[in-house]
Design a protein that fits this description.
The protein is an alpha+beta fold and 182 residues long. Helix content is 39%, strand content 26%. The chain has eight helices and six strands. Strands 2-5-4-3-1-6 form a six-stranded mixed beta sheet. It is globular and about 45 Å long.
Length: 182
């Protein structure tokens, strides 16, 4: 069973919005990424993306994020949530821990110190959803006040229950979205 991760972005700073647009929405050219990664990861990304740019994001390298990051596997689903809207659903392509790539892509103008945002994920197949986050909370049986922070993983129990009742997260979210329109 594949994991489902939620990447909740608060978009509370201009810099965060700029970096999000540059690296997720507009994607990152492979020529920018490749000098910073090993040959095996480069080969995997070329195999999956050919010569297309890659949606890329990062997390601060702390114990909380690191424990979640270690559970990420290629093929896991990811939902990108802006504030209280699920903007995209996609899959995890690969991950790496890479300080130099992080400094290249997510430098800071606001201060001289560089937070170690070195937990890097590459995503594929991002599809626009634009669905209220509360629908996901209901779908997985979390309370209305559930607000994940940063990277959150749907619990194993909730995943098992979901997979017993549904075959595709995208399909279920699409049905919810379609029902909203009527």
């Amino acid at each position: 069973m594949k994991n489902i991760f939620i990447l909740h972005l608060l978009m509370n700073s201009s810099e965060e919005i700029i970096h999000y647009n540059e690296t997720v929405i507009n994607k990152v050219e492979q020529a920018t990424i490749f000098p910073y990664i090993d040959d095996e990861l480069k080969k995997n990304l070329i195999s999956e993306f050919e010569d297309s740019p890659i949606p890329t994001w990062r997390l601060m390298n702390n114990s909380v994020n690191r424990s979640k990051f270690e559970k990420i596997q290629p093929g896991d689903e990811i939902l990108i949530v802006e504030e209280d809207i699920i903007r995209f659903i996609g899959k995890i392509s690969a991950k790496t821990i890479n300080v130099d790539l992080s400094k290249k892509l997510w430098f800071s103008f606001e201060n001289d110190s560089h937070e170690e945002l070195s937990l890097v994920i590459f995503m594929r197949g991002l599809i626009s959803i634009n669905l209220a986050f509360e629908e996901l909370s209901k779908l997985f049986g979390y309370g209305e006040d559930w607000i994940p922070e940063g990277l959150t993983m749907i619990s194993e129990n909730k995943l098992k229950e979901f997979s017993q009742n549904h075959d595709s997260l995208y399909k279920v979210l699409r049905e919810i979205k379609d029902n909203e329109l009527f």
